[in-house]
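> Could you send the DUF1232 domain-containing protein prediction when you get a chance?

Sure thing. Input:
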Amino acid sequence: MCSNRLRERAESLKNEILALSLALKDRRTPLLAKILIAISVSYALSPIDLIPDFIPVLGYLDDLILLPGLIALAIKMIPREVLEDCRARAREPRLNKKAGWIAAAVILTIWILLAVVIIRRITC
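Output:
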């Protein structure tokens, strides 16, 4: 029973993140909300945490407090009709698979660009 509830919650969170990524592309979403969404989705999908997970107790605080807080704030900043439209589109099975590959490509590109910038700063 608990595993079903956890599975439903995980699916709901996955759909929320996908809906946020769709809202990021929507013209009706305000710029400040888009910036917050980009930070939230990037951080959620990023393999690097603000506080490393191996640090006892503190390591999971960013995952348990910071990320849900960013997501909640981003959701509050998106107009209701935009969010409802994005949530409906996020439930489409075809979009789920495509969005996963697109999100992975975007995150990989961001990290490659970040690595290039850091390497340039170190070597110059």
